[in-house]
Amino acid sequence: MKKLLQLTVILILAANILSTVLVLHETERTFRAATAQATNEGIVSFCLNRPPALGVPCSPNLTEHALYTCQLNASDPDNSTLSFFQTPQPPDNVTAPVFNISPSGLINFTPNESHVGNHSTLIGIDDGSGCMNAYAYSLFSFTVINVNDPPYLIRPLPNETLPCNSTLYAFFLRDYFADPDRGDILNFSYISGSSTVFINVTINNDTSVVFIGTQPGRGFFIFRATDLGGLYADSNVVQVDVSCQPQQPGTGDQTGTRGAGGGGGIAPPCIPELICLPWSECYPNGLQVQVCRDKYGCSETEIRFYQNCTYTGEQPPCQENWLCSEWSVCSVEGKQNRSCTDLHECQTTKTRPPLEQECVYQPTCEDGVQNGNETEVDCGGPCPACKTIQQPSLFAGARSWTTLISLLFILILAILLALFTLYREKVYEGLAELGWLFARRRAKELLLTQGEKRLLFEDLALLEKEMKAGKLAPGKAYERLSIELRKYYSFVLDLPFEYAPEEFDAAFAAATLSDDLRQTLGGFAGRLTLLESGLLPADALNMMLFSSIEEEFRLLICMTSQYDLAEIERELPERHITPQLSFSEEIRLRLLNGYEALQFLKLGAAQEEYLAILRAYDSLPEKAKAFLYPDIRRLYLETAYVQETSE
C-alpha cells in the first residue's frame, strides 16, 4: 500500500512537469509563427504604470473671512510629476470653484460672504502617463460658517425741506441700507443732533421715515441700521429744514448767478455740508459724542450727536444723596428718631445722617408717667386733680339720670372709636367698595384721535425697546418720557408742543372735562413737571419711578381714546410682594399692578390692589402718607372712571 501511494505521487509530479513544458513550447511557437497578414506598418505600445495616491487631510469646517490653508498629500511610486485638478459638484459646477489648488497641492484662500454654506468638489491628481490608472480622486465636502458682517450704506440719504405744520413722508431706509448676510433683518433708529427746531421723526414698520415740523428752523439727523448681531452702519448727516414763510408771488426761485457786467444778480444760497469727527471715547455717564462742523462755513454752530455706549473705565463712586424725614416727638426716654432714604440707591451708608438723637423730654399730663410736679400719674400739681384724692365722690343715689345718660353716651363713643381704630382698614375698604358699587354708567371722554393715540403707543413701544437694549442713558430716558407726556397734553388741550405754563393753565381751565378726569389729568401733570425740573439725577435711573410714570401714562391714553387690547399687548414683568419690602415699596408695586390691570379692563384685580394699598397706607409715617396720597387718590379716580366708562 505504501509503494502504491509513492507511485501515485511520482506520476502526478511527472504530469505537471510535462504540462509546463508543453505550455512554454506552444507560447514560443505562437510568437514566432505569423498568425495574420499585416497591411500597414506601426508600433504597438504597452502601458506599464503604477497608479498615484491622493490624500485630503483638510478640515471640513471653514470660517468666513478667516484664512484657510491645507496641504494635499500626493505620491507616485514611479516618481512621476503630478498635477492637481478639481471638479466642483452641484450646485457649484455652474460657477467658478470656491478655491484654487497650487501646483504643489496647497489650498490657501479666505472665504467671503458669497461662499457661506455647504460645498463639494472632486479633487484629482494626474501622473501624466496617459494610462488608464494615471488618476486618483477624493471627494472633499466642506462648510463655510457664516460670520456676522455689518450692514452698510448703499448711497447717501437726501436732505429734506417741509413747510410748517405739515407731514413729509421722506424715504424708505431699506432703499439706502443693505446687509451682506443673506436674510439678516435690520432694525432702524436715528440720532438727533443739537437743533433750533422741534421736528418729530417717526420710523414706521415698513422703514418709511416721516418728518413733522411745527416751528421754522433746521435739524440734523443720523439714521442707523443695526443687524441682529448688534453691528450697525450710520448714514450721512441728513439736514431737514422747516420753512414757515410763504413764497411771495412772482418772486420765483431765489437761486441765481452773478451776471457779467450787468449789475449782478442774486448770489446762490450757502448750502451747508457737515464734516464729522470720529465718535469720542465712552464717558462714565454712558454716552459718547460726535462733533460735526459745516465744511463751507454757512453756520459756525457745532452740531453734536450723542449715543449710548458701555463705559469700561473705572466707575466713579456712587454719591449718596440722603433724604430724611422730620425728627419724631421726643420720647419719655429722651430719644428722637427719623428715617432716611438714599435717592441714588448706592447700597452704602458712608454719609448717612444719624437716625437717632438725644433730646430733653418735656413732661405732659397725657404721657402715662408720673413726672414733673404730678402727685400721681398724669394728675395733681399742674395737671387736673386726681379723682381718688382731690375730687369728692358722689353719695349713693345722688347721681341723676342725666349723668347716667352722659356716661352711657361716652361709653358708646369710646367703643365706636376703639372699633374704628382696630378695623380702620376694613372701614376704608368698605367706603371704597361703596363708591365703586354706586358708580354710574357714562360715555368715555375721547380726547385723542386715532392717529394721535397710535403715535403715542408706537413712541412708548420704541422707548421700551431702546430701554431694554440699553441704548438710553438715564438722563436721556427721562427726557424721552417727558417729550411723550408733553406731546400728550398738547394733543388733549390743543396746544403747541412747547407751550408755556400759563398757556397750559388757561387751556386746562377752559377744557370741558368731568370732575374726576380733570383731577386725574391735573394731578398727573405734576409728573411732567418733575421730569422737566432737572431734579432727577442724569446718571442714575430710578426704575420704579420711571415705570410708574410710564404705566400710568399708558393708562391715561387708554382712558381718553378708543383702543383695542391688541394695541397694548406686551410681555408684562413679574412683580412679587415680599415681606422684605417696606410699606412704601409695596404701595409703589401695587400702584403699577393697578395701572396695568386697568389698561386690560381687569377691574377686580385693580380694586384688590387698591384695597391692599389702603391696608399698607395706614402703617406709613405721616410724611410718607403725604408723599404717596396724590398717586393713591388718582388710582381710585382712575378705577372709578374705567368702571363707569367700560362696556
Write the layout of secondary structure elements.
Layout: H1 2-32, E1 53-55, E2 61-63, E3 68-71, E4 73-75, E5 83-88, E6 106-109, E7 117-126, E8 135-145, E9 152-153, E10 160-163, E11 166-172, E12 177-178, E13 186-192, E14 199-203, E15 208-213, E16 217-227, E17 232-234, E18 238-243, E19 274-276, E20 287-294, E21 303-308, E22 322-324, E23 335-337, E24 340-342, E25 356-358, H2 401-422, H3 424-437, H4 450-468, H5 474-492, H6 501-510, H7 515-532, H8 543-559, H9 583-599, H10 603-617, H11 622-645
Parallel strand pairs: 2-8, 10-18
Antiparallel strand pairs: 1-4, 3-6, 5-7, 7-8, 9-12, 11-15, 13-16, 14-15, 16-17, 16-18, 19-20, 20-21, 22-24, 23-25
Helix pairs in contact: 3-10, 4-5, 4-8, 5-7, 5-8, 7-11, 8-9, 9-10, 9-11, 10-11
Written account of the structure:
By secondary structure, the chain is α+β, with helices and mostly antiparallel strands. Among the domains are: 53-145, Cadherins (Immunoglobulin-like), CATH 2.60.40; 152-247 and 269-308, Immunoglobulin-like (Sandwich), CATH 2.60.40; 450-645, no CATH class. Helix content is 32%, strand content 19%. It has helices spanning 2-32, 401-422, 424-437, 450-468, 474-492, 501-510, 515-532, 543-559, 583-599, 603-617, 622-645, and strands at residues 53-55, 61-63, 68-71, 73-75, 83-88, 106-109, 117-126, 135-145, 152-153, 160-163, 166-172, 177-178, 186-192, 199-203, 208-213, 217-227, 232-234, 238-243, 274-276, 287-294, 303-308, 322-324, 335-337, 340-342, 356-358. Strand 7 and strand 8 form a beta hairpin. The chain is elongated. The relative contact order is 0.05. Residues 247-266 and 388-399 have low confidence and may be disordered.
